[in-house]
């Protein structure tokens, strides 16, 4: 499973803002109203969240996400290893409760 395959499965969902679309990093702003659809896609590929929203991030969570901005209490972190690489995905909810930044990275 490559990061691009996850992105392709999200066809049809609203992208409010495209921030970065590279082979190893993807960042978009999505609508909170579509969070369940995004969660379904990510859970089907990456499994249940490693760190659910509201759970305190562990030291390992912080180390894993350091290069992509870290992880906070109100954010969700998904992670799965695929042999030679790992894919992480993070939901960063906005204060307006209407938008969420989704960051996904393929780590070597």
Briefly note the structural class of the backbone.
Answer: alpha+beta
From the spread of the alpha carbons, the general shape counts as globular
Encode the helix/strand succession as letters.
HEEHHEEE
**Count of DSSP E strands?**
5
In angstroms, what separates the terminal alpha carbons?
13 Å
Rg, nearest Å: 13 Å
Summed up, the helix count is: 3
Give the DSSP E fraction (strand runs of 2 or more residues): 25-35%
- Domain module tally: 1
Low-confidence stretches are none
Helix content: 10-25%
The main sheet orders its strands as 1-2-5-4-3
Taking the sheet with the most strands, its summary is: 5 strands, antiparallel
Q: What does the average pLDDT come to?
A: 95
Structure description:
This protein has 108 residues and is of the alpha+beta class. It is 24% helix and 34% strand. It has a five-stranded antiparallel beta sheet with strand order 1-2-5-4-3, covered by helices on one side.
């Amino acid at each position: 499973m490559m990061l691009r395959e996850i992105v392709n499965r999200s066809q049809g969902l609203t992208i409010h803002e495209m921030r970065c679309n590279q082979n190893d990093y993807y960042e978009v702003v999505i609508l909170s109203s579509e969070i369940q659809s995004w969660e379904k896609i990510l859970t089907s590929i990456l499994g249940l969240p490693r760190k659910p929203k509201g759970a305190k991030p562990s030291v390992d969570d912080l180390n894993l996400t350091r290069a992509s901005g870290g992880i906070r209490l109100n954010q969700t972190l998904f992670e799965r290893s695929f042999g030679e690489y790992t894919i992480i995905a993070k939901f960063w909810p906005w204060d307006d409760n209407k938008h969420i930044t989704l960051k996904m990275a393929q780590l070597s």
